[in-house]
Amino acid sequence: MARTEKPLFRIAYTLYTRTRLGYMYYKRQMRKAREQYPAGHSTSQPMEFNGIKIIPVSVLSDNYSYLVIDTDSSVAVVVDPADPQTVQTVLEEEGVMLEAILCTHKHWDHSGGNKALKRLHSSCRVYGNAADNIPGLTHPLSHKDSVTFGRMHFKAFFTPGHTVGHMIYLLDGRGVGAPSSLFSGDLVFLSGCGRMFEGSATTMLSSLDTVGSLSDDTLLWPGHEYAEDNLLFAAEVEPRNAARENKYQWVLQQRGQKLCTSPSTIGEEKQYNPFLRSHSMELHLALGIQQVQDEDWTQFRARVLEELRKRKDVYNRR
């Protein structure tokens, strides 16, 4: 079974990402989610900083899109609009004009609504990395490119590993006297990271280090509601991590009421997210991994990350 599992998985992944069957699967999942969660899988509260408003939008079975609004100009940007109908409803409720889509990567559960929203908002621009074959892309971005909409200033970071063209978007909070906000797609979740579908552990480590280099007060807005499962896995590899246990108890309270667990902060994640802790001696001991003589530190950390991701894949594949 173990010998055939990986080839079968690669076939399924190729069908999902490169054929019309994948798009049909996404449409089916969207319909099912609308039936199962007519009000969304989670309840969230908007967060506002001096006229910049961030609204997590619950879509599909566990995804989040994010509507970011400059309330002074009523201009809006949406990150990863997987369900265009749901996103359009929120746009109408807020009474704002959609100026741009910031797409982290090509997977349908992040990019599936791009073209439909573009049809509804003809002047809307679609941003992302050209390497990822993003639906409806109009404005390709490269590493550290900046884009501005009203008073909203975003910097894009090229973070491959989950896909070849994955990007994350940092909303600069300095202009409005607030923390910055990172929209991380499937690179980093609360206590987790995305699967390495199209990159090596070394590539993914470099992308995760980009996140780790950000200010500790940066707010983290990930692409999925995976917090509870991720923290349970973190307990498997670092059972004595007190910060993880405290966060887990809070997440249990939130999820018990079907409340959104976003945002966390980069500073918090560094305390309990094992995928941002490849440097941690405690984690090395827990995994039973040691740096061998003359082994490069970065390569050793990549080996730690690879082992973590293998264990997570076996644990629950998220």
TrEMBL record:
Keyword Cell division: no
Cofactor(s) annotated in UniProt: Zn(2+)
Coiled coil: none
GO cellular component: mitochondrion
Alphabetical UniProt keywords: Hydrolase, Metal-binding, Zinc
Pfam families: HAGH_C, Lactamase_B
Residue intervals passing through the bilayer: none
Domain of life: Eukaryota
Metallo-beta-lactamase domain: residues covered: 62-224
GO MF annotations in UniProt: hydroxyacylglutathione hydrolase activity; metal ion binding
GO biological process, any: methylglyoxal catabolic process to D-lactate via S-lactoyl-glutathione
Record family assignment: Belongs to the metallo-beta-lactamase superfamily. Glyoxalase II family.
Name of the featured protein: Metallo-beta-lactamase domain-containing protein
The organism of origin for this protein: Channa striata (Snakehead murrel)
